[in-house]
Give the backbone structure.
Amino acid sequence: MFGYVKPSKPDLLMRDYEFYRRTYCGVCRALKSETGAFSHAFLTYDSVYLALIRMLYIPDGAFGVRKVHCAVRPVRGCYALKPNDALTYTARAFMCLSYHKLLDDLHDEPAAKRAAIVPIRPVMARARKRADLPELDRIITEELAAISRLERENSPSVDEGGEHFGALLGRVFSEGLTGADARITHEIGFHLGKFIYAADAAEDYEKDKKHGVYNPFVALYGGDTLTKESKTAIHTGLLLEAEAIGRAVELLPFGSRQTIARLVRNITYDGLKARVDFLIKEDESVERSL
């Protein structure tokens, strides 16, 4: 997830954004208690989307709030959701993802950055062990190994890599659920994974080309500068994945939990689109100046 799954804040009600922040703080506290004191340092706002969706499957009485103090707000403090099963699962699953992202960074980043990452690995390995999700961790390992194979082959297929990352996130979203609940959440995770894989490759195109790092779009376009038509095609593909996420989101059992419904819809329909508009904004600004 890591940077793509955020709300469009200008379109949020204040009370909804406050619940969003309390959910984020709740995941942060769950990370500390479940996977270790330093694991919260790797938390990103993307985790809230998973937590919000998983909270649709816990009882109504599990949404208490408590005031907490942390390094960010040591005196004033802030309000966080009290521990519940959705926050606990999100923290543990997110730590598994974070550990594997660290391994990926060790492979892809320049030597100077890798040197800074190496000392962190033992801490993350312990946090991953404490997360205690062996089956989910196995799926993550297998799907990332398949993506690594595509990297070694310099595959120009964005779809194939995206489907592996989609299968990975589909399992993250649906782990422990059954029946229609598992199918719906898996669909959300699957298309979100495809969205993130392609969006990340598009955003890193120039950097990866410069450093000789595998990128499916670099393989596809031969390292040529992306034209307006190429960017538009990538952007359209991303919007189609976002639409697929939206169709699954509308099947979620929101019921009376309208705050969660508004947040999930905001992230799905507005946040994801805003995050990938970098593909078209530059060209639009050039056209307006002509």
About this structure: The chain is about 70% helix and 5% strand. Confidence is low (pLDDT under 50) at residues 285-290. The first helix runs from residue 14 to 35. The beta strands are 65-68, 78-81.
